[in-house]
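Is alpha-D-glucopyranuronic acid placement plausible here? Inputs below.
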Amino acid sequence: MKTWTQALAGLLLAALLQPAWSAPVEDGYDLWLRYRALPAAGQARVMAQARGIVHAQPASPTLQAAVAELKRGVAGLAGREPAALARPADGTLLLVTPASAPAGVDLPWEALGREGYALRSLRLDGRAVTLIAANTDMGLLYGSFAWLRAAQTGADLSRLEQRSAPRVGLRLLNHWDNLDRTVERGYAGASIWDWWKLPDIRDARYVDYARANASLGLNGTVLNNVNAKAESLTRPWLAKAAALAEVLRPYGIKVWLSARFSAPVELGGLKTADPLDPAVRAWWKAKADEIYTLIPDFGGLLVKANSEGQPGPQDYGRDHADGANMLAEALKPHGGLVMWRAFVYSPDASDRAAQGHAEFQPLDGRFADNVIVQVKNGAIDFQPREPFHPLFGAMPRTPLALELQITKEYLGFSTHLVYLGPLFEEVLRADTRAKPEGATVAARVVAMAGVANIGSDRNWCGSHFDCANWYAFGRMAWDPGLASGDVAREWARQTFSSAPRAVDTIATMMTASREMVVDYMTPLGLHHLMGTGHHHGPAPWVDNLERADWNPVYFHRAGRDGIGFDRSPRGSNAVAQYTPDWAARLARPQTTPEAWLLWFHHLPWDHGMASGRTLWAELVAHYDRGVAGVGALRAQWAGLRGDIDARRHAEVAAYLAVQEQEALWWRDACIAYFQSVSGLSLPAGVRPPAQPLEAYKALRFNFAPGRGG
Ligand code: GCU
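Reply from A.M.:
I modeled the complex. Tokens:
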């Protein structure tokens, strides 16, 4: 039997040796590009295919980035960096373009286009090699990341045959980052752009940001908030943007800026920003010339105009097409684009959901060919669930961008685990039934924009699981046909663990989580019940805001007689904005999908539901289901304690505990409120809210994050 001192000595020795044996501390910084050492068999599998690398010389910065990433990945996964070779040996990665491809190998160059890649295992003069093939160095970078993804997710690297080209040409992040480094609707710390120190100081983190985006195929980033300050277009700020563009360029990421429509007045001293005024047009042309001297590959301008108080062409009696076309004319000689947002609403609209379509649909066909109209996924504002925006089926002659929100403004900020892959999938696959140009939303869009959830937090997104939303946005922008469940598995395996049980559990949790937030916040088509301004927590009772369409009561219209917004022909008739098939279907509660029911209909509390329950009982059941779901997430995660590194396991567990409390808060506050307006008692066996309604109403969150500057 060991003595006490022997035991202590043993412990001390173990502690001393610990650093040599233990894996690096996982703090989330490495995202899905962790490249942690594989078990011995996996190391051998990777090393067998990647002993060496052959590539064209001299290598462009993009090709250098591809080679560096492969070296880093293989060194991490298999313990040894592949050697740079002049000629392929057995087990070589061969990065080739049409100019350097080995003779006799038939590759689908045309189908790969400018950004696509192919991965192919083959024998070359008796040696086993892997071709990473593309028409451009950018394609080679994307292909290198795809090879590393295959290596990290356990694919058979000796038998690769993959081909991939993006289905959507423009794949952008939209940062809502202010010049003072606050982030509107950001829950991950300050802006990652350290504006003050730019352009001289370039944080090493910008390169990791570029690597992460390139690994997903994102090819553009709008640096500043859509609620833009004119200053971002002044020379000193353009120099800062140019410095970022230089860092991001090798990774295929173009820099874009949000523009304030009234900049000619604020910066140029003009009396007007009227888009038809020759002096205004000249000002924007000169500004575009200046931008392109500093940033020759500048992507273009994103504009929020005549929305939520922002200036725009309507201030001068002009319309959105006049405004967008004026900017398009200035950018055109440089190959620049205008992304003009369709997120508009004004105080006098009788139905806020109808305004975007009402303002934009009549302009179909009037936009210049370098204008893209950027449409949010739904007609209100990034709710846990919205029907797809009717504009996707209504503007056949206008290129459209789909705008999704990656940051979770209305979905529990960064503390709630909500995987957005299923939400993205739902909207991308929504069938607009428009003819003849292709029916789904995915088929209709030429660009996808995701409102970023990235900040200065060490783990980038404020929570480990929120990085899955960045990941899913990028992967699904490249290929909108991907199934969100597969994307979840891929992410989980690269981010957390390759143990099948862990991957299965995490992917199951993720896939179920989106419906949970719908259930505990806004079931059955309810929307915008969140707290005033900050959008944190439930506040369905709010009815005193300056504008009707800012009040939750405007959206749910609950009273003695029932609940829901009547957008049928008997109400606002917003259903008529959909294609005829949908309009007919949505006109009647019986043919409206239950998940959207109260979005389109005002119904009595005793309305019969598919389950056989009354609407009221169904609503309560959804709230209960949502809360129970989060309880299940906690239990599932607790069961993975041995599979996940301690720090990240504990951090996620702590967040899930907060989420369960807040889900319960949502349920209790909403049920208490709806009871108060309906006068109904709870269905049998249902637990009453923990506190009286007044207690929920009294809560205040004056310093909630994400309000911006
Ligand atoms: C929402 C959000 C705002 C944002 C706006 C937009 O209303 O709350 O912070 O500016 O969307 O998309 O322009």
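Short version: The domain at 520-565+602-697 is CATH 3.90.1330.10 (Alpha-d-glucuronidase, C-terminal Domain).
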